[in-house]
């Protein structure tokens, strides 16, 4: 079974200076041989990702997006640092190879890592994928287990004690994402002020067991084994990782999880095949995670609503770049519909919540 995530030609406006990159990489990684070829991965809406091939050797280059960026987002050095810290402990990390802040190469910091070859599932499973309910259920369980494995790592033992500030994490997240939404809001976007007020009122205290959190952990950010697709062999896109409340991380993941009985507006913005027969429901994910982690998740409504709001902010930030002509990527035009759907879902959850 082939990977479902193959690179293509670089997009207009996002091409890299191949000569400068080749010179840098051959100096930094002496064992590279053969002709260099650069292609771009078309998926993803944030950092730009390219495949750089030297003969049979496949590398991945990560760089920030073009255009206005959130002040603290897209930190290539930070992303490279956490991969370095976790590479010996968390089996699923890509191996980082080299990082540079030399803007003379491509105009911004970037880093290079080894490519993990495997299956990356996008909106739907490929036709050759065994979609029996039992197989899908096993994969969903494995996804929750790999997420928990990350949260179970002692961040101090891997040298990440200064990587984040777990004290006040929840409050900073609610306030920070609220500010980001207000800064990125366009005239055609919902107000969201009542959702922000509810999150500020209902936010829990700091976690007594902070952990390393990925902050974008979802099915299309993992790599599946080509020979055994129920097994996860890689976790990608570490740009938002930090040390904080793992239940906030879980809530962020649940926001992406569109299950088969969700309404049509959520089905329209489904990014992954989480609606497939056999897939876990959000409640089943929470219960499986709670059993693995021995954590109480009494404030589930808060974490899920925050995840929905945060995902809406991310979609709005992406749409903002298109709205103001900072990118020509036509995919970004449709993000405003996701913002409205997520706003509606969060409001309904709040109306029905017992918190």
Describe the structure.
- This protein is of the alpha+beta class and 355 residues long.
- The chain folds into two domains: 18-114, Phosphorylase Kinase, domain 1 (2-Layer Sandwich); 133-352, Aminoglycoside 3'-phosphotransferase, Chain: A, domain 2 (Alpha-Beta Complex).
- The chain is 40% helix and 12% strand.
- The chain is built from eleven helices and nine strands.
- The protein has helices at residues 18-28, 76-86, 103-106, 133-151, 169-184, 193-202, 246-256, 264-268, 282-293, 300-323, 335-352, and strands at 36-40, 48-54, 57-63, 96-100, 110-114, 211-213, 222-224, 232-235, 242-244.
- The strands form three sheets. A five-stranded antiparallel sheet has the order 1-2-3-5-4, with helices on both faces.
- The protein is globular and about 60 Å long.
- It starts with 17 loop residues before the first helix and ends with a helix.
- The model has no long low-confidence stretch (mean pLDDT 93).
Question: What is this entry, summarized?
Answer:
By secondary structure, the chain is α+β, with helices and mostly antiparallel strands. Helix content is 40%, strand content 12%.
**CATH architecture identity of the largest domain:** Alpha-Beta Complex
Q: Beta-strand level of the residues, as a percent range? A: 5-15%
What structural class do you assign from the helix and strand content?
Answer: alpha+beta
Estimate the global geometry from the Cα principal axes: globular
Query: What is the third-level CATH name, the topology of the largest domain?
Result: Aminoglycoside 3'-phosphotransferase, Chain: A, domain 2
Low-confidence stretches: none
Which series of helices and strands comes N to C?
A: HEEEHEHEHHHEEEEHHHHH
How many structural domains can be distinguished in the coordinates? 2
Count of runs of 4 or more consecutive helical residues? 11
